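Notes, Module 5: Reading structure tokens.

Key idea: the token line is not a picture. It is a compressed description, and you learn to read it the same way you learned to read a sequence, by spotting repeated patterns. We will look at two proteins. The first is printed below with its tokens.
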Amino acid sequence: MVIRVRRKSDVASSEITPKEVYVNRRDFLGRTGGALAAAGMAPLVAEPVRPREWRQEAHVAPPADYGEELRGELNPYDDVTEYNNFYEFGTEKDDPYKHSGDFEPRPWTVEVGGLCHNPGKYGVEDLVGMGEIQDRIYRMRCVEAWSMVIPWRGVPLRNIISRLAPMTDAKFVAFETVYRPQQMPGQQRNVLQWPYVEGLRIDEAANELSLLATGLYGEDLPNQNGAPLRLVTPWKYGFKGIKSIVGITFTEEMPPTSWNISAPHEYGFYANVNPNVDHPRWSQARERYIGKGLGRHPTLMFNGYEEEVGHLYAGMDLREWY
């Protein structure tokens, strides 16, 4: 069965970053001196897609917005799994890949609580079973201004929220990462306040693009990418991507978030990809697209998903609510 919901921001299935690019970006970054990641959504085939098929069939071209000079094959799968942010394993980009081997993602439970009618402790299989597993291609852009196209596998968060039945007073959804300092050596350092916490307004969480991801490239999530369950919000990628989730809580008040606690002048609660609002230490106006090394290119508002999410922020001053 093919799931096909075409949108203006969709990325064609022919534009998927090859697995070798996704997992193997350290060598590329050494050659180009930078990183990037953008991604757009286009649901894929519902049945599993094996890694061999990704390697043979998936050659990526950037979105049309980037211009003809950026089209062509992009970097492989190793980039995504060997170069990423997961401070629970260390602050260097390759620390999650190097130091997550002892992490145990099974068995796994998620504690659901707060203002909802169906609280409780759910096995990850039961939680994921609240919706239909889908393959989606998202254009992803990191806060550090690099971008690529990534095929995720997971369940629309809106389906899970619906089954958990939040009360009418619930305005926000809070998430919490597992705390296991013996398996996650980064948690032995006071880089952030542990455990890591994140949050979304409930209408953001229920947006059609929000995904609780269980895999990528047709496989289960690797430890270093947030196994067994992580949040994917492509218009906030790099800001809102909490990994290894063990807690979901519905609240009336805006919940704390780890980066807002650590650096409130740099990271607001909403944290949208917005080329008009610079990070205090770098510009958000331009980004680098992994695989080409052709310099920086304009960042798209909401990472190119304005049609799907712009209405969520109508009337808000996004310089104040950054």
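Here is the second protein, with the sequence above and the tokens below, as before.
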Amino acid sequence: MPDSTGLPGYARPFETLGVAAAAAWRRSDAAARWRFCLRMTVAAVLAFAVSHVLNIPLQGLWAVLTALVVTQISVGESLRATTEYVVGTIAGAVYAGAIGVLVPHSGMLALTGLLALTVAPLALAAALSPSFRVAPFTGAIVLLLANQFGEGLLESALYRVLEVALGGATAIVVSLLLVPDRAHGLTVNAAARILDRLAFLLSELMAGLTRPMDEAEIRRIHDDVGRSIGALQTIASEARRERRAYLVAAPDPGPLSRTLLRLRHDLVIIGRAAVTPLPEALLTPLAPALARVEESAATYLRESAAALASRRSPPPIDDVTAALESYESAVAALHGDARVGTLSSSEVGRIFTLGFALVQLRQDLGDLERIVNEHARLA
């Protein structure tokens, strides 16, 4: 099941990060849910109270509904939802008000035709841009509720815009002032979880070079990581919105998201090389170097996850570099080995594939080091 950040859960969460960190993250998730509950409740009550003071029709129904709809888990997501909701409402209300005034519609048949004429272009706009998703809904409301409460078409359109603006403004104020959750923080914590999962996956894949793997389990983990990165990219887009609104001073989350995606691609390539155990002619001379690479790289990913989550400086990458150099030396020593000459081209090709993946992994871990350091400097 997804957690509060929208990331998939796992059957064995945080295998490598440790019990204390896992418990801390679970507490953080629970606290985020309670904060979201509090913000949504306060936003609805506040919108209702302001609507009552301003004597808005229907007891401020649309202001309250808007506050509920646009209050999201993070400030950045609330900004996005409010912007889209207000833009769609203005488009729907203005168009429905204008078309209702310009086109006579006395009688049920004429009103039906006008409804179709109102909804069709707004539905097309909604299909072209998510900013207009509520435009058809608003247009229909304005058209059908006009004259029902002593309001004309233009008055009805104006009320809808004002009520939605009131509800959106209320949600934003509450999101900013009442125990706010920044999308940037959610992005960093989600990235730390993914790094921990990548460390576990790397260990499993490297072990596949020496013994058969559970391919179904590996595919499941790959799929989970892929969904997690997709969810992270959504959260990162909200974090960028916060940065553009000067609500948070933090590094651009884009490089972090892209680096995690590249790390996952590195593990996909390693998985292709590890689809079956290496033949004995390769495994015997390479096993110690491979074990060192697995231990150092997985440890680096785990420690980077912990450093990112706590906004600390990244761990030293020297052990990973030394392990990869040791592996390259072991591969170079195989040249001229008579046992290698008996191997098939596909078996030898797996070593080249693995070597390419490990070179890419080293480069991407270097990018990760720089990104973790950027977050630590701004902590």
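Summary for the second protein:
- Residues 82 and 168 are 5 Å apart (CA to CA).
- The domain at 188-377 is CATH 1.20.58 (Methane Monooxygenase Hydroxylase; Chain G, domain 1).
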